[in-house]
Amino acid sequence: SYAQTNPIKEDGNNSVTAEMLNQIIENNKKYRNEGEVANYIPELSKVNPEYVALSVVTDEGKIINAGDVNQKFTIQSISKIIALMIAVEEQGEQKVFSKVGYYGTDKPFNHYSNLETDKIPLNPMMNAGAILITSMIEGTGEEPFQKILERIKYITKNNTINYNKAVYNSERETGDRNKGIFYLLKNKGLIEESEESLNNYFKQCSIEVTAEDLAKIGFYFAHQCQRFDGDIRYQNTDMARLIQSQMLIAGMYDFSGEYARIVGLPSKSGVGGGIAVSVPGKMGVGVFSPALDEHGNSVVGYKMISDLSQILGLNLF
Ligand code: DON
């Protein structure tokens, strides 16, 4: 296999270098032709499909970057793990998981027909569960969104982060399916308020980040909610376990099972082309490449993570 034949591994020197990351980008960027940039949200289709970035935060909190690491893109579904964390902090694990399940699925991220027969959404990573989770965060108006934004700024130590208003408006104008899901949840008595929480969901998806920001998010959950610079304000082992287990079973949607078998690492993707990876107790990885496969996961992103995992022997299993 690649891992056995890779000289980096055979030398016993498995520390991450920028050259290693650049090589992984070079080996994989051609695969962008196998995917397509998300176009169901018109504003997302405008992104340049050539962008590619790979970032690692090592176990010592050192940042190693390659490719278009300054390029911003929308965080999309990766915001769901931050929202879940805040909802659990405020409401407790038991209450949150009385309203949403923790099941894997063979259905796409915007699947909703199970709401007709099941009492609650399948998990907090699919849209139905995620919209419900955002509605559980306390506060009126934009406050729940602001909490998500503030926590992302804290984790990344990047105060320039904000949401992209054009993407937000585009999501809102064309998000009929999410609107439908919201009203089904409301009809079932799981959500009470007006469309504010739906708008907060669209806003959280529109937050702009870089691959480095995602690597820091991955690191945070890999290190019991400790920040890459050692700040332990939110340190919480149970929370890190909860979030990473969700990432493992549902973070890549209906591809999660195959991904767990091949890569074996808790990961969360978004249709902006980003993936955040947590290597428990070790590193955080962030990737960006906008062309997506049929599941809504970055094609090149997935291949780069597979290679990095093989070279460094990161697979948990
Ligand atoms: O709900 C949506 O349609 C998007 N704003 C977010 C979905 C997403 O990122 C799914 N990902 N792979």
Automatic annotation (TrEMBL):
GO BP of this protein: glutamate biosynthetic process; L-glutamine catabolic process
UniProt keyword Acetylation, yes or no: yes
EC number, as in UniProt: 3.5.1.2
Protein residues bound to substrate: S77, N127, E171, N178, Y201, Y253, V271
SUPFAM superfamilies: beta-lactamase/transpeptidase-like
High-level lineage: Bacteria, Pseudomonadati, Bacteroidota, Flavobacteriia, Flavobacteriales
Entry protein name: Glutaminase
Source species of the chain: Myroides indicus
Catalytic activity from the UniProt record: L-glutamine + H2O = L-glutamate + NH4(+)
Assembly information from the UniProt record: Homotetramer.
Molecular function GO terms recorded: glutaminase activity
Record-linked Pfam families: Glutaminase
UniProt KW keywords: Acetylation, Hydrolase
Family: Belongs to the glutaminase family.
InterPro entries, sorted: Beta-lactam/transpept-like, Glutaminase
